[in-house]
Amino acid sequence: MRARTRQAILDAAITVLGQEPTVSLGAIAAAADVGRTTLHRYFPERSELLRAVNAEVTARLERAVGLARLDEGRGIDALRRLTREYFDLGDVLSLIFNQPHLTAEVGWADPGVCDPRFETMVRRGHEDGTLDPDLPPPWVHNLLWAQLYAAYGYLADSDTSRHTVLGLLVRTVTGAAGVKSARIEE
């Protein structure tokens, strides 16, 4: 029960903070369907809640990378899987895009640096002929995050389904990063 309550508070905080960074702890408690005293039992200070949110965001990003199996198959296929996994993060992406200062400790934000696993995946794609060898890994990394941002904006501003937006996102990322023959195979 205790773990579920803590997780409900974190889920609500990610959702609510992604919309309004200065939202009150009372509003977060209400969104989690717990009382303010319950929230304070788990997170006595706002700073503790924000640290826990940061840790949760990091864990979810790591889980997405794991589910994408970056070390398996062709580079473009791993990029396609990662794009889908990241898109499925939902409110985590809203928080990252709308309130980057709240997730600054996550560590992926440096535009010149990317996760070594991502870099290895892109280099494998260069070698297997599925990813454009003229695009360095940090470029592909930034391309992916820029398109995720565009997809979430489009999803929020249109009446297009998540499924359709995901398809557009995957097509755009793989089309931009892949070589023509690799993009055809889906």
From TrEMBL:
Keyword tags: DNA-binding, Transcription, Transcription regulation
Gene3D superfamilies in the record: Tetracycline Repressor, domain 2
UniProt superkingdom: Bacteria
Keyword hit for Transcription regulation: yes
Molecular function as annotated in GO: DNA-binding transcription factor activity; transcription cis-regulatory region binding
Transmembrane segments: none
InterPro entries hit by this protein: Homeodomain-like_sf, HTH-type_TetR-like_transc_reg, HTH_TetR
Name of the molecule in the record: Transcriptional regulator, TetR family
Organism: Micromonospora pattaloongensis
